[in-house]
Amino acid sequence: MADDNPNLLKHLEFIQLTIARMAANSFIIKGWAVTLVAAILAFTTTENTCKGAWLALIPATMFWGLDGYFLRQERLFRRLYDQVRLRTDEGATNFSMNTSGVEKEERGWLAVQIHGIQCPNQGVCFAGRNPFDDWQVKQTNGVAHFLKMYPIYDWVSQNGAKNLPMWIEDAARRAGR
Known about the structure:
Blueprint: H1 6-43, H2 49-85, H3 100-103, E1 111-113, E2 118-119, E3 123-124, E4 136-139, E5 142-145, H4 146-149, E6 152-154, H5 160-174
Parallel strand pairs: 1-6
Antiparallel strand pairs: 2-3, 4-5
């Protein structure tokens, strides 16, 4: 069926190129993360080791978020590819790259604040700022903040060691899994 429709083949090619770009971006992000974290750790070994580790954690967390974004986008475009590939209508191809139709199949999110860890030189660490404070997504009806969309759990006060599986199940249930 796809062989008979050159527009469908071109649409699939566009999606495939976008998937390849997302994979390449994810790979580049990982390379930068390793390089930057290694450089921070190398330059802070003469100083307080605990402080250097905490400093290296900042870019590692930022690059982890970026990598997660690119992997999510790649997954969405793979689902769009499958949706277009399996389309049964013989109508005209609209060349849409909109992933909102497959986005509702996405997994749920949750945040866990981990603190109270003993550091040999600095004492016990405290709960920092919530990473979801500044995260938002554009939607058709405006902007949605992660703080309002997803729960934030506290590992210490909410007994994370015991409740983490329940938190994950809850996030999956909210995502429709």
